[in-house]
Amino acid sequence: MPEHFSIRGAKGRTLSGKIAVCGAKNAALKGVAASILFRTPLTLTNVPEIEDVSRMLEILRTMGAQITFGEHQATIDARGLSETTLTPDIAKRLRASIVLTGPILARHGFVRFPHPGGCVIGERPIDLFIEGYKKMGAQVKQSGKFYDIRAQRGGLRGAELFFRLQSVTGTETFMMAAVLAKGRTVIKNAAMEPEIKWLADLLNASGAHISGAGTPTITIEGGDPLDAQGKSFRVIPDRIEAGSFLILGALAAKRLLIDEMVPEHIESLIEILSATGVKIVRGERSLSVSAPKRWQTLRSVSVRTHEYPGLATDLQAPLTVFMTQALGESLVFETIFEGRLSYIESLNRMGANIAMMDPHRVLVKGPTPLSGKQLESPDLRAGLAFVIAAVTAEGTSVIHNIYNIDRGYERIEERLRAIGVDIVRAN
Ligand code: EPZ
């Protein structure tokens, strides 16, 4: 029988204590993919022990890499990785597996992969990837369900790439491919997420020549396979987890300390919450937050998701839950993905007053008390938003499909219980 979470509402400002943030899923997954560029084993520490990371490691293992993983440390020896096909099974298991195409193509001169299947958060096309590979001199053939990408003799060539849209995995994939390409690659309108900068630092410390990561223009001078030189690399803290805990604390904590995180990675969320009246105290590697004594004192603000350093789309669902408890109207505009608002219906069943304006925008009217309900987690971020809604609600909520939550958050119920959330995992 699949597991579910049963959560009893917190009845006001009852949470307290300290919660440490785990390593970032979306950095760890790319670090694992980067191992393909190495002629030595690569060791990552502070790796979150979550389903998506296990799946990514499993994919590399089935493709021929040797892997050890435990106690938040992963060592990946990809020297024996010889497989150049990502099967539909692999692509379906993990959308992020698209980032493997860059390092595989750069190293082997060939990669075959299926069009990644539809996803609950929208279309997620791959046109930027196909166009980029062509610009690097590769031939692209579509045969049946698969794309066959073949570099020209001598390997990928450096190129000038301008991304029409800032794509996170696109930037990471081409940054990695360019490390082993011949000559210089320039990525313009590159994504600037902290995970990209972290990945570039890891590659540079191992012999790559990347400049500008964290800005819209990244330049990569191609070279030889990388050497970790016996070093290990610590995965940066998960800013989405940190931001979600901050929202939880702003709704239900007497005082919550969110620790082992980087406040400037969620600056835009801090600004938004502060504008609603939430009191946040910044430490160097922590934030402390309290819910107001009376929720009615929170003021709504309108928000739109944006590429980093703007408001992360991955924080959109938790922030919408927050807005249900703030006074006034908040327009929430999801600019990155269509289809990432499907959870709204469930919040309305809980008592929220949210009107769908179009596939990208909702209008939240608050404050509205929420009441416990049966919920299905549609994706991992909305899943955690439901956990926050359930804590805010009166009565008990049951959240199903929690595999989706386990994909991105490590031992979430244990960690939330430690700060006072009444949550149990059950069959
Ligand atoms: C990454 O997805 C993250 N995933 C997502 O996190 C995150 O929501 C997203 O970036 C935005 O921050 C990983 O890092 C594994 P994009 P990604 O390419 O890279 C369009 C989570 O829950 N686009 O930056 O797939 C695309 O449709 C996940 O952890 C094209 O049109 O997102 C979107 O509108 C969910 N063509 C926009 O670009 C392309 O070829 C930005 O998407 C590629 C993307």
TrEMBL record:
InterPro entries: Enolpyruvate_Tfrase_dom (IPR001986), Enolpyruvate_Tfrase_sf (IPR036968), MurA_subfamily (IPR050068), RNA3'P_cycl/enolpyr_Trfase_a/b (IPR013792), UDP_GlcNAc_COvinyl_MurA (IPR005750)
Coiled-coil regions listed in the entry: none
Pathway(s) where this gene product acts: Cell wall biogenesis; peptidoglycan biosynthesis
GO cellular component, one term: cytoplasm
Active-site residue list: 119 (proton donor)
2-(S-cysteinyl)pyruvic acid O-phosphothioketal, modified sites: 119
PANTHER family linked to this entry: UDP-N-ACETYLGLUCOSAMINE 1-CARBOXYVINYLTRANSFERASE
Described function: Cell wall formation. Adds enolpyruvyl to UDP-N-acetylglucosamine.
Protein name as annotated: UDP-N-acetylglucosamine 1-carboxyvinyltransferase
Organism: Candidatus Lloydbacteria bacterium RIFCSPLOWO2_01_FULL_50_20
